[in-house]
Predict the structure.
Amino acid sequence: MSSAVELCEWLVDQGTLVRAHDPAVKTLPQDLAERITLVDSARAAVDGASALVVSTPWPDYRQVAAAGVAARMANRLVLDANRFFGATLGADPSMRHLSVGKASA
């Protein structure tokens, strides 16, 4: 099981509503689908969100504009597991950007 799935399950166990997006996943296994909502776009994942967790450095997400993400979120907190968004979301003063790990290549 991936660390992203483990994090989603932990968040749900803490009472968090989780909407997830992965460009490579079209459906979730039944046990996960009962707990996690899979959405069809990155934009749908951030609509009204209190926090955005980016746990994988998908190249598709490099196209995300910081202003567009900020405008869609209820609370502008980004947890960036791979320092993937330092130059985009991390550079936007309206976002609170927390990163860990090594910079992606």
Observations:
- Residues 3-13 form the longest helix (11 residues).
- The mean pLDDT is 87.
- Helices lie at 3-13, 30-33, 42-46, 66-72.
- Strands lie at 19-20, 37-38, 51-54, 77-80, 96-99.
